[in-house]
């Protein structure tokens, strides 16, 4: 397995990983969410397109990440590949590419992700209200110095 730059041939894999993973980050919320596929979510899709995107996998892509400047915008691992350190490897990779303070945003209720980020030195710097598919979500901004 290895990390490489995204290519157009990875498009369907990224859409699949996102669709199978996005709602997992919101499963600790009290509200229920309906998936808005990445290619239908104009704001998130445009953020991914303007980012540096990398995929993880040899023949099959099992995860992807994206960052723009110092902002980590995506880190998604296919459910079948979780618990094997893939997310941690992608996070380490992005941190090695980012100069200065890295930032990311995470649902405040997603304690497993927050704990992972804290293991890598991220700290919660603020809390704010955002939305996903028109439903309010309390989120944390996290920074890595």
Automatic annotation (TrEMBL):
InterPro entries: Acyl_CoA_acyltransferase, GNAT_dom, YpeA/RimI_acetyltransf. Residues 1-145 form the N-acetyltransferase domain. CDD domains: NAT_SF. Pfam families: Acetyltransf_7. SUPFAM superfamilies: Acyl-CoA N-acyltransferases (Nat). Keywords: Acyltransferase, Transferase. It comes from the Bacteria. PANTHER family: ACETYLTRANSFERASE, N-ACETYLTRANSFERASE DOMAIN-CONTAINING PROTEIN. This is GNAT family N-acetyltransferase. It comes from Marinomonas colpomeniae.
């Amino acid at each position: 397995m290895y990390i490489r730059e995204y290519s157009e041939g990875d498009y369907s894999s990224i859409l699949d990983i996102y669709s199978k993973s996005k709602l997992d980050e919101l499963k600790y919320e009290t509200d229920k969410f309906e998936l808005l596929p990445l290619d239908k979510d104009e704001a998130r899709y445009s953020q991914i397109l303007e980012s540096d995107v990398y995929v993880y996998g040899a023949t099959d892509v099992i995860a992807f990440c994206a960052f723009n400047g110092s902002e980590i915008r995506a880190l998604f691992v296919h459910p079948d590949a979780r618990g094997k350190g893939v997310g941690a490897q992608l996070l380490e990779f992005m941190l090695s590419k980012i100069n200065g303070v890295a930032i990311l945003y995470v649902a405040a209720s997603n304690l497993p992700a927050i704990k992972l980020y804290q293991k890598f030195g991220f700290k919660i710097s603020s809390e704010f209200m955002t939305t996903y598919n028109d439903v309010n979500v309390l989120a944390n901004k996290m920074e890595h110095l």
